[in-house]
């Protein structure tokens, strides 16, 4: 069984991938590197939904994006789902289906397609290479292309767009809400807030991090963090809270689950915490609803 407690994944000495976990990952579509042998991931049915992989026209090429949406007429609010370092694997697709069953259009772009598919790889050095190849500029450009795609779709309500992301995608969520005006609200799940040390994963010069741009936040974000996260110290969380307060950014908040680990929402990992995951999920939905990103029938109660 793998214990994944860091934003970038485990270190080599943490890894003890069983044959059962590897087989489950390959045939179930989950990230090979992080699947727990004892996991029982949530499987959300697609009945009543339209699910498909579309092609989004980015600046340099078309990129695939998984879409799940209600199989009904009308326009629906949108949530862009930003993946972890493991890419758009079954956990991310299931998250999209969960949102679609609530009445959202959920779309998960593949930001890593240019360099590879990290979900199929058990060597973290190779995953690191793939993820590091996705520059700030490329990621924001892909988000712009995704938003542009959505604005042309008759099923999407372009006036009601939110964004959420996990791990690597949590940091992207903060940055998107700091840099772009298209999103009315964001929900960042245990995304790194401050720059890593030089030489560490994603620690290369030139990348910006959420705490650096807190004063530019254009949409309120709810941050969902773990008290026992080995890669995101609580000092960073408190510094982000202070930065938001100093910038007078109302509507944003950060929730910390003191007994949870990084990845507590990821039901295919050993770090999954169902109680914290359920609470944080409903807090996310309530945050979206409070800021105008909600389906007509949604009631923010657990």
Automatic annotation (TrEMBL):
GO MF annotation: an example: hydrolase activity
InterPro entries: AB_hydrolase_fold, Dienelactn_hydro, Dienelactone_hydrolase-like
Dienelactone hydrolase domain segment(s): 63-290
UniProt keywords, alphabetically: Hydrolase
Coiled-coil spans in chain: none
PANTHER family, A to Z: ALPHA_BETA-HYDROLASES SUPERFAMILY PROTEIN, CARBOXYMETHYLENEBUTENOLIDASE-RELATED
Name used for this protein in its record: Dienelactone hydrolase family protein
Species whose genome carries this gene: Phenylobacterium ferrooxidans
């Amino acid at each position: 069984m793998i214990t994944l407690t860091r934003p970038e994944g485990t270190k080599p000495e943490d890894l003890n991938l069983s044959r059962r976990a590897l087989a489950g990952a390959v045939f179930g579509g989950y990230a090979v590197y992080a699947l727990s042998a004892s996991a029982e991931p949530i499987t959300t049915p697609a009945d009543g939904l339209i699910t498909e992989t579309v092609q989004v026209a980015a600046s340099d090429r078309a990129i695939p994006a998984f879409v799940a949406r209600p199989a009904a007429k009308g326009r629906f609010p949108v949530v862009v789902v930003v993946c972890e370092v493991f890419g758009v694997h079954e956990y991310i697709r299931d998250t999209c289906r969960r949102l679609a069953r609530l009445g959202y259009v959920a779309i998960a772009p593949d930001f890593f397609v240019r360099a590879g598919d990290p979900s199929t790889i058990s060597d973290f050095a190779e995953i690191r290479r793939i993820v590091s190849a996705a520059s700030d500029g490329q990621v924001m450009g892909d988000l712009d292309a995704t938003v542009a795609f959505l604005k042309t779709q008759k099923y999407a309500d372009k006036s009601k767009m939110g964004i959420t992301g996990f791990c690597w995608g949590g940091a992207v969520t903060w940055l998107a809400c700091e840099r772009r005006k298209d999103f009315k609200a964001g929900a960042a799940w245990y995304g790194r807030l401050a720059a890593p040390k030089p030489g560490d994963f994603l620690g290369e010069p030139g990348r910006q991090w959420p705490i650096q741009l807190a004063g530019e936040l254009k949409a309120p974000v709810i941050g969902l963090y773990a008290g026992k996260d080995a890669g995101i110290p609580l000092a960073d969380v408190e510094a982000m809270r202070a930065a938001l307060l100093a910038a007078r950014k109302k509507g944003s908040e950060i929730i910390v689950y003191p007994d949870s680990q990084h990845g507590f929402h990821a039901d295919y990992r050993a770090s999954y915490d169902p109680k914290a995951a359920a609470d944080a999920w409903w807090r996310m939905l309530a945050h979206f609803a409070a800021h105008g990103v909600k389906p007509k029938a949604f009631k923010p109660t657990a």
